[in-house]
Amino acid sequence: MKAWQVNDWCEPEGMQFNDVDVPEPGPTQIRIRNHAASLNFFDLLAVQGKYQVRPAFPFTPGAEVSGVVDAVGAEVNTLEPGDRVMAMTHNFGGFAEYSIADAYRAFELPDGMNWPEAAAMPIVYHTSWFALNKRANLQQGETLLVHAGASGVGMSAIQIGRAMGARVIATAGDEEKRDFASAQGADHVLDYTEASWVDRVKELTERRGADVIYDPVGGDVFDLSTKCIAAEGRLLVIGFASGRIGTIQANRVLLKNMSVVGVHWGDYANRRPWYIRETQNALDALYAAGKICPAVTCTYKLSEAPKAMRDIAGRRVIGKAVLTLE
Fold it and tell me: Is 153 exposed, middle or buried (0-12, 13-18, 19+ CB in 10 A)?
């Protein structure tokens, strides 16, 4: 099969598109003939050696795929060859014609969902459900502020926040991205390149501030978010796409009775496999009700993976980008 491989830390252009052996599933795993593989910002970090997980060389980037099960391990009784699935792959491995996944991390496609949408769903929607439902305990009627509203995680947070009954304010860096965030259900969309966004959040909440802030950006955005969070608000630390880890003065936490809440979905899910299925059941119900749907705005051939990753690095992707396979 064809697969992209990383033999040393590099930029996307340093990856190699190799012919490799088709992998064999372990006893509790499945093998998937991929139809689509989704890209995430952490794929770029993994290739560069900047991600918190450093797989052994050579490795294949990509952590979420959709396709048809073509082999199952001896202990798998939940799926069988021919099933149409979306999956979180085992040890990356997504940017290839075939991928391996633990059976409990693979789910049959909901009715009406296409291959690119399915590949774009697992990680970002699981992350946002965990963040908003489990970590923030977002309540109906509360105000949710979503930073990077045109990103994959931002898109999923806006949709899930609306589905949970929150009023959603989003931020994005240009007009096209703000229009996209609005189309995902944001009630108001602000330009976070202008310092006035902090005052606008206060105005839109009658000076109260946002009850929950979803921050995958970090840096200045994180720092400024502490100035427009409500008393007893929850500031969710999703990631650091800006490249700088934000800081906060402890007195601000005290004076506002606010919580700074970590969102490390991967570690939580690894220790609680049952939670992954529970989350997918909730997401399937929201999808069936028409309340959530991954917006795939960029598709590339598998052979174009370096270009796709470069577009992500250059902030040129809105929503989700997906590699497609015949």
Answer: buried
